[in-house]
Amino acid sequence: MSEKMPESALQALKIAFTYMPKAIEVTQYEYGDRYQIILEHIETVREELLLNDVDPEEVYGDINPDITPRSTY
User: Fold this and answer.
1) Spatial distance between the Cα atoms of 43 and 26, rounded to a whole number of angstroms
2) CB 18 within 8 A of CB 56
3) Quick check: is 6 in a domain?
4) CA separation for the pair 4, 19 (Å, rounded)
5) Is residue 33 in a domain?
6) Residue 72: inside a domain
7) pLDDT tens across 21-57, in order?
8) Dihedral through CA 30, CA 36, CA 42, CA 45, nearest 10?
9) Is 20 helix (H, G, I), strand (E, B) or coil?
10) Does residue 51 fall inside a structural domain?
11) Rounded Cα distance, 24 and 54, in Å
12) Crossing angle of helices 35-51/7-19, nearest 10°?
């Protein structure tokens, strides 16, 4: 089992993740020949969040609760 990140580093990673493009937005048209590398970087960050018990889909709401729509389910 891997060691968990310190809380301050995890918070910084979560903030950075909120500003990263979503994988669905990364296309060769938009990012040129580097698009595959960018997708790999996004996946690396997602994996590190998961290893630290953070759901990547919930990060934006954790960082920006005041501007995140409420769930209806």
Assistant:
1) 12
2) no
3) no
4) 22
5) yes
6) no
7) 999 999 999 999 999 999 999 999 999 999 999 999 9
8) -150
9) coil
10) yes
11) 20
12) 140
CB 54 within 8 A of CB 15: no
Task: Report d(CA 70, CA 43) in Å as an integer.
Answer: 26
Coil, strand or helix at 52: coil
Can you tell me the distance from the alpha carbon of 49 to that of 9, in angstroms, rounded to the nearest whole number?
11
What total number of domains does the chain contain?
A: 1
* pLDDT higher than threshold 60 for residue 1: no
Phi-psi region of 58 (alpha: psi -120 to 50; beta: other; left: phi over 0): alpha
Range of the domain at 33: 14-64
Instruction: Give dist(CA 72, CA 69) in Å, integer.
Output: 9
